[in-house]
Amino acid sequence: MKLRSFFEAGVYGLAANGGREPKGFEWHPPVSGDVRSPCTGLNNLANHGFLPRSGKNIDIETLRVAVKAAFNYDPNTFDNAFQQAVDFNLTTTGNPNTFNLDDLALHDAIEFDGSLSRNDIYFGDNLHFDPAIWGRTSRRLRLNDYGPDKKELYVTVEAAAKAAAARVADAKKVNPTFNASESQQMGSPGTTALYLVTMWDEDAGAAPKAWVRSFFGVVEIEWAVG
Q1: How far apart, in whole angstroms, are the C-alpha atoms of residue 11 and residue 116?
Q2: Quick check: keyword Iron in the entry (predicted)?
Q3: Engineering a disulfide at 6: which of 26, 70, 157, 213 sits with its beta carbon 3.0 to 4.6 angstroms away?
Q4: What is the per-residue DSSP string for 105-169?
Q5: CATH top-level class for 15-225?
Q6: Is 207 helix (H, G, I), strand (E, B) or coil?
Q7: Low-confidence ranges of the chain (pLDDT < 50)
Q8: What confidence tens digit (pLDDT) does each residue in 150-183 have?
Q9: Domain locations in the chain?
């Protein structure tokens, strides 16, 4: 595998990889008083200590260092999200140059309807991981199905796109206030691209199912029920 990232080191506790988490960046669930966002990627950074584990008072330089160190992305990858938080005056920190992760939950600013792992704000909670929503996405991606064909160990671009489209279709059916805004139209495919690129295996031309499952399910499930 050519991917050299946070995941290849086994930092999300993927026992199958036999890897160890980097010292100082072990996974810990949030504790009382910590906050998290609707974005699984950012939450992963906080759960591993690349961002403040509290999820609070994050400035642009901290975000850039975390993105580069953890995901091996260009450090400016999340600059636009940070700028949106500033432009929409989302921050509750008292400092316009910092934000808390849960500040990003303001609907239709950065957060959007049709999330792969969150319910829509219409139903009361667009912030926390929703096992039922993610369960349907997981089944569509066939994350727990493995067959004799090695390709069945991976999530392809086609499978990911179909799962994302199906989730949006579900939301439109049950949410009478579904908002197909610019935020939603950019955010939905963006979320899919984020997890695929982060965990991409160049040799396979797809993302390992085990990593996708851990990225969404294992990392956040304790926050959802804890």
Answers
A1: 22
A2: yes
A3: 70
A4: GSBTTTB-SS-SSS--GGGT-SSS--HHHHHHHHHHHTTT---SSGGGGEE-HHHHHHHHHHHHH
A5: mainly alpha
A6: strand
A7: 1-19, 219, 221-226
A8: 668 999 999 999 999 999 999 999 999 998 776 6
A9: 15-225
